[in-house]
TrEMBL record, chain A:
It is found in: Cytoplasm; Nucleus. Keywords: Cytoplasm, Nucleus, Proteasome. Component of the 20S core complex of the 26S proteasome. The 26S proteasome is composed of a core protease (CP), known as the 20S proteasome, capped at one or both ends by the 19S regulatory particle (RP/PA700). The 20S proteasome core is composed of 28 subunits that are arranged in four stacked rings, resulting in a barrel-shaped structure. The two end rings are each formed by seven alpha subunits, and the two central rings are each formed by seven beta subunits. The catalytic chamber with the active sites is on the inside of the barrel. The proteasome is a multicatalytic proteinase complex which is characterized by its ability to cleave peptides with Arg, Phe, Tyr, Leu, and Glu adjacent to the leaving group at neutral or slightly basic pH. Residues 238-272 are annotated as: Disordered. This is Proteasome subunit alpha type. Its main location: cytoplasm. The keyword Nucleus applies. The keyword Amino-acid biosynthesis does not apply. The lineage of its organism: Eukaryota, Viridiplantae, Streptophyta, Embryophyta, Tracheophyta. Residues 239-250 have a biased composition (Acidic residues).
TrEMBL record, chain B:
Belongs to the peptidase T1B family. Component of the 20S core complex of the 26S proteasome. The 26S proteasome is composed of a core protease (CP), known as the 20S proteasome, capped at one or both ends by the 19S regulatory particle (RP/PA700). The 20S proteasome core is composed of 28 subunits that are arranged in four stacked rings, resulting in a barrel-shaped structure. The two end rings are each formed by seven alpha subunits, and the two central rings are each formed by seven beta subunits. The catalytic chamber with the active sites is on the inside of the barrel. It is found in: Cytoplasm; Nucleus. GO terms for cellular component: cytoplasm; nucleus; proteasome core complex, beta-subunit complex. This is Proteasome subunit beta. The keyword Nuclease does not apply. Non-catalytic component of the proteasome. Keywords: Cytoplasm, Nucleus, Proteasome. SUPFAM superfamilies: N-terminal nucleophile aminohydrolases (Ntn hydrolases). The keyword Cytoplasm applies. GO terms for biological process: proteolysis involved in protein catabolic process. InterPro entries: Ntn_hydrolases_N (IPR029055), Proteasome_alpha (IPR050115), Proteasome_beta4 (IPR016295), Proteasome_bsu_CS (IPR016050), Proteasome_sua/b (IPR001353), Proteasome_suB-type (IPR023333). It comes from the Eukaryota.
Length: 272, 261
């Protein structure tokens, strides 16, 4: 979209009834690296791509534990995401303290959405530039929600956000009908496969992705690298020789890095 | 020093009593703001509540009396109320504080219903909420002068718990407040067992209530029994227990000890 005279303030409507600043905030979500969520009747899996600022630095954390029964994956301005995760943790723990009972996910996302809405209606604020995939478990089962900078929230069987998420979404669209009855292992496998779609050619390694699971009788936790690699090995071809494999990998890694650099020129350093 | 008369002043914001208290230097007196909004003693009180878990849920019994000190002043007070879909609250102690608690819970249940999302407050949540309220009030030295019994059933699981006015809270298979702790609990410890039928449960509660009727000065012979199961709450109509006073020892109580009673 192009610059116009109605996009300076979040409190200015355009003649066609749009709030451009809010839409620009949603663009920021698309710049972040991919995050994916899927759910079955009893489990929710959140996965993300580990993108590092440079080879020298470590990758930014995009998945946060909110409570034993709720996790969140973010895409966009990680700083905003961190602040909102802290808010979610606070709400969850306050509820647990008063009622000794886990906060129902549906109620948490509404509070989160209301918080985001406030920023779309104050002239001295700006919308949060982060999309949140909130996965959680409550009395009525497993849920996956997407919270938008606009203050909207939607419930999903599976969803992907961030850059190159369309590829993941296409993959998920083909498979989502079976997710409700999926086993935990199949759900994890589908999540990693969806992540692979967003990498577009880059070899999938366990160091490139973070996967988290929560479910009935299973509190939120991250999968360790070994478990992820085991799943990857079930469908990725194993490199023939270590040396060749190493070289090939280095070349493959260099190529997407260049492509990524060229394509992401407009990506601000604060977005991951 | 002579005492000055108490002066009342009513502020638009809130009521407060101002006591003028003479202090040592004679001429000037200091106004101490006595915070009359703090509960210092209970006035109209309800006596024991006894409750047990049984096969289908929880049974709770209470009489309908409200004592004003040693006068049995009110005889139609319902001390057990349904809370939401899944809980039943019984209270002993200051009746006005019980009514205040019902107002808090009413708001809580209202907000819970307004979410309209398939989640609802169960007895565990209500019990913990009440524990927080009671404990916080105790910390402010302004307690709600009640001992509360919270029973309920949700998703097939029975729950029975108690909160005191200082915020002590626990769960058990059978609970009682006030005199019930001393008179009813020993009976329950001997005779309660899991999966009591409704009839047996009522008989057991009536046995406890009869003892309380004989021995508790603030008990009256007009009681209600409330039942809570997965289906909901029912509070019985008030009724009386049969009592027996023809024990031989009552016939000529002073025989052998003239002048005693």
């Amino acid at each position: 979209m192009f610059r116009n005279q109605y996009d300076t303030d979040v409190t200015t409507w355009s003649p066609t009834g749009r709030l451009f600043q809010v839409e620009y905030a949603m663009e920021a979500v698309k710049q972040g690296s991919a995050a994916i969520g899927l759910r079955s009747r009893s489990h929710v899996v959140l996965a993300s791509v580990n993108k590092a600022q440079s080879e020298l630095s470590s990758h930014q954390r995009k998945i946060f534990k909110v409570d034993d029964h709720i996790g969140v994956a973010i895409a966009g301005l990680t700083a905003d995401g961190r602040v909102l995760s802290r808010y979610m943790r606070s709400e969850s723990i306050n509820h647990s303290f008063t009622y000794e009972s886990p906060l129902p996910v549906g109620r948490l996302v509404v509070r989160l959405a209301d918080k985001a809405q406030v920023c779309t209606q104050r002239s001295w604020k700006r919308p949060y530039g982060v999309g949140l995939l909130v996965g959680g478990l409550d009395e009525s089962g497993a849920h996956l929600y997407y919270n938008c900078p606009s203050g909207n929230y939607f419930e999903y069987q599976a969803f992907a956000i961030g850059s190159r998420s369309q590829a993941a979404k296409t993959y998920l669209e083909r498979r989502f009908k079976s997710f409700n009855e999926s086993s935990r292992e199949d759900l994890i496998k589908d999540a990693i496969l969806a992540i692979r779609e967003t990498l577009q050619g880059e070899t999938l390694k366990s160091s490139l992705c973070t996967v988290s699971v929560l479910g009935v009788d299973e509190p939120f936790h991250f999968l360790d690298q070994e478990s992820i690699q085991k799943v990857i090995d079930t469908f990725e071809k194993v490199p023939e020789e270590e040396e060749d494999g190493g070289e090939a990998e280095a070349e493959a890694a260099a190529a997407p890095a260049e492509q990524g650099g060229a394509g992401d020129q407009d990506v601000a350093p604060m977005e991951m | 020093m002579f005492l000055l008369p108490v002066s009342f002043s009513i502020n638009a914001d809130y009521f407060f009593l101002q006591f003028t208290i003479p202090i040592d230097n004679g001429d000037s007196v200091k106004n101490a703001e006595a915070d009359s909004q703090r509960t210092l003693y209970p006035y109209v009180t309800g006596t024991s509540i006894v409750a047990i878990k049984y096969k289908d849920g929880v049974l709770m019994a209470s009489d309908m009396g409200g004592s004003y000190g040693s006068t049995l002043r009110y005889k139609n007070i319902e001390r057990m109320k349904a809370i939401g879909k899944h809980s039943l609250l019984g209270a002993s102690g200051e009746i006005s504080d019980f009514q205040e608690i019902l107002r808090y819970l009413d708001e809580l249940v209202l907000n819970d219903n307004m979410w309209d999302d398939g989640n609802s407050l169960g007895p565990k949540e209500v019990h913990n909420y009440l524990t927080r309220v009671m404990y916080n009030r105790r910390n402010k030295f302004n307690p709600l002068w009640n001992t509360l019994v919270l029973g309920g059933v949700k998703n097939g699981e029975s729950y029975l718990g108690m909160v005191s006015m200082i915020g002590v809270s626990f769960e058990d298979n059978h609970v009682a407040t006030g005199f019930g702790n001393h008179l009813a609990r020993p009976i329950l410890r001997d005779e309660w067992h899991a999966d009591l039928s409704f009839e047996d449960g009522v008989k057991l509660l009536e046995k406890c209530m009869r003892v309380l009727l004989y021995r508790d000065r603030s008990a009256i012979n007009k009681l209600q029994i409330a039942k809570i199961t997965e289906e909901g709450v029912t509070v019985s109509q008030p009724y009386s227990l049969k009592t027996f006073w023809e024990f031989k020892a009552f016939n000529n109580p002073t025989a052998g000890a003239e002048g005693s009673w």
